[in-house]
Design brief:
The complex is a heterodimer of chains A (about 140) and B (about 400).
Chain A lengths: L18 H8 L4 E5 L5 E2 L14 E5 L3 E10 L6 E8 L4 E6 L12 E8 L5 E7 L7
Antiparallel strand pairs in A: 1-2, 1-3, 4-5, 4-7, 5-6, 7-8
Chain B lengths: L11 E8 L10 H16 L8 E3 L10 H7 L5 E3 L7 H14 L5 E8 L31 H16 L3 H15 L13 H6 L2 E3 L2 E2 L9 E9 H7 L4 E11 L13 H12 L8 E4 L4 H10 L8 H5 L18 H5 L7 H13 L13 E9 L5 E9 L4
The chains are: A mainly beta (about 140), B alpha/beta (about 400).
Chain lengths: ~140, ~400
């Protein structure tokens, strides 16, 4: 059952609020939204802070490192893939896929780092892979 | 036997309940299934269409809110509510109908659900979407969240934090199958063992095929009436003792998959009913997947957080054997999950139990207090949760 992933990725839906996120992704940067009023970070990114409804939100670059909060390998798909929630070092958890990994050896708590892959339409999509440094699941 | 701590006035009763018998509706339209379900529930109540003055439906209703179906069924209304909370909607509608009746906005409320995903060839791989402009889609859909692998992530985290096992998950399915063997309309009537569940193919780690509910066509309907009308209709009317609802979502990335909105909907409903989990003799618990039941039982207070796996093990949910008989119709895991929205059938089986009309093999003796809980949307992203506590006519 163990295999490396080679799959295609559908285009994300990009809108007025999220276009800068995807522009940064094309440049290999993972961005979060931070609120200048309450100081808190959120994801997915909004123009309005979901913690205090302030409009004073700003883009900040994430370290791109984190740990697997949970995951599941979709065995029934023609090409099995790993969906996951990754908790970033910034404390925010985001949905993603884990790639460049042995699907049978993933673990909650595993250290991962962001990597970008092209979608079918040429957008760059943030995914995660096991971190280069030794993980401690 | 549970007794109400103090007498309380009950303003609304469930007078009619009907589960559409079909499980695959290649020969019927969605509107037709709604109307057939409505007719069944009104017949069950001893009322007619012209008695209905309030109508409740959710996102499965074709057209704008309830307008198209009200026209299709020829309803004349003074109250309408199209609250959409996924599969939990119909449990919430029971509470909303009781509130509307207490406020004098209507006196006979009809609630309907119907759909035909099997006839329409629903695919279980891929993501369910709900129209354009949904703000989170760009950050979820490229990663191929199906329904199963999202619930699987909740199960995986529960196992990690609390030591829950696949065997414990399997006990939920075992109990459902023990009940379903007595339901001639259940899609899956074969009794299964824990080993059968573990031997079924893994769909999305750690969930096996037998951890997943059925997909079925069909529907159902409920009729909620005022106490005055219930008094005329007789003892088959079931008391609405309490209701609660809530939602839970990803909270801007502060994700915790170990609990559901039931942590709020449950206490609200119990508080209204002035009852506690140990008073519940029968529980209908939304069972989209086995993990849904385990987390929900914890959240509703039937056991401590993290103890759900141990609670369901060894047949504790089997009628006549366990402490908490659940889903005695076979639930969504074995009987019916019309249009992927199981809240309606949860209420219907609770009504059967409180009337003493469940199958004799699964009927809870002298069942006077029951709970029905719905979980809509997805427990790994955003969900609606709705709880009702019901009492028999003499409770």
């Amino acid at each position: 059952m163990t295999r490396l992933q080679e799959k295609t990725y559908a285009e994300p839906m990009i809108n007025l609020e999220t276009e800068p996120y995807w522009r940064a992704a094309r440049e290999g940067r993972l961005m979060l939204k931070s609120c200048n009023d309450c100081g808190q970070v959120h994801h997915y990114p909004r123009a309005i802070c979901p913690r205090c409804l302030s409009s004073a939100t700003a883009w900040v670059q994430a370290t791109g490192r984190g740990r697997i909060y949970s995951y599941s390998v979709m065995r029934r798909a023609p090409q099995p893939y790993a969906i996951a929630y990754v908790t970033l070092d910034e404390g925010i958890t985001m949905m993603t896929n884990i790639v460049e990994c042995k699907l049978d050896r993933l673990a909650i708590g595993q250290e991962v780092e962001v990597v970008f892959r092209a979608t079918e339409g040429g957008q760059q999509l943030p995914l995660f892979r096991p971190a280069a440094r030794k993980g401690s699941p | 036997m549970p007794t109400l701590l103090t007498p309380r006035s009950v303003s609304a009763f469930i007078a009619g309940a009907y589960e559409h018998p079909t499980r695959k509706a290649i020969d019927k339209t969605i509107a037709q299934l709604h109307a057939e379900s409505a007719a069944g529930a009104l017949r069950d109540a001893g009322l007619t269409k012209n008695d209905v003055d309030g109508y409740f439906c959710a996102g499965d209703a074709p057209g704008l809110g309830g307008l198209a179906l009200a026209e299709y069924m020829g309803l004349k209304l003074r109250h309408i509510d199209s609250t959409e909370m996924g599969g939990s909607s119909y449990v919430a509608h029971v509470g909303h109908a009781a509130q509307a009746i207490a406020a004098g906005k209507c006196s006979v409320a009809l609630i309907t659900l119907a759909g035909r995903p099997r006839a329409e060839g629903l695919q279980t791989l891929g993501s369910r979407t709900y129209g354009p402009g949904v703000p989170e889609y760009g950050f979820e859909l490229p990663y191929e969240p199906a329904v199963t692998n999202l619930y699987a992530m909740a199960a995986m985290r529960h196992m990690h934090e609390f030591g829950t096992t696949s065997e414990q998950l399997a006990w939920v399915k075992v109990a459902a199958s023990q009940h379903a063997q007595h339901n001639e309309r259940a899609m899956l009537r074969e009794v299964v063992t824990v080993q059968d569940v573990l031997d079924s193919p893994v769909i999305a780690d750690p969930l096996h095929r037998l951890d997943c509910c059925v997909i079925s066509d069909g529907g159902g309907a409920l009729v909620v009436v005022s106490s005055e009308i219930a008094g005329r209709l007789g003892p088959r009317c079931v008391k609405i003792l309490g209701s609660g609802e809530s939602i839970k979502h990803n909270d801007g990335g502060l994700i915790d998959l170990t609990y559901t909105g039931a942590v709020r909907s449950g206490p609200i409903a119990f508080g209204e009913a002035r009852l506690k989990p140990s008073d519940i003799q029968y529980a209908s618990i939304y069972d989209s997947f086995t993990i849904t039941v385990i987390i929900t039982l914890e959240d509703l207070g039937f056991c401590a957080k993290g103890h759900g796996g141990r609670f369901v093990a060894d047949g504790n949910l089997i009628s006549g054997i366990g402490r908490l008989p659940f889903n005695t119709d076979g639930g969504g895991l074995c009987n019916n999950h019309p249009n992927n929205r199981g809240g309606m059938t949860k209420v219907i089986e609770a009504v059967r139990q409180l009337r003493g009309e469940a199958h004799p093999k699964v009927q809870v003796p002298d069942c006077r207090i029951a709970l029905a809980h719905g979980t809509g949307g997805n427990i790994a992203t955003r969900m609606g949760s709705a709880t009702v506590i019901l009492g028999s006519n003499d409770a």
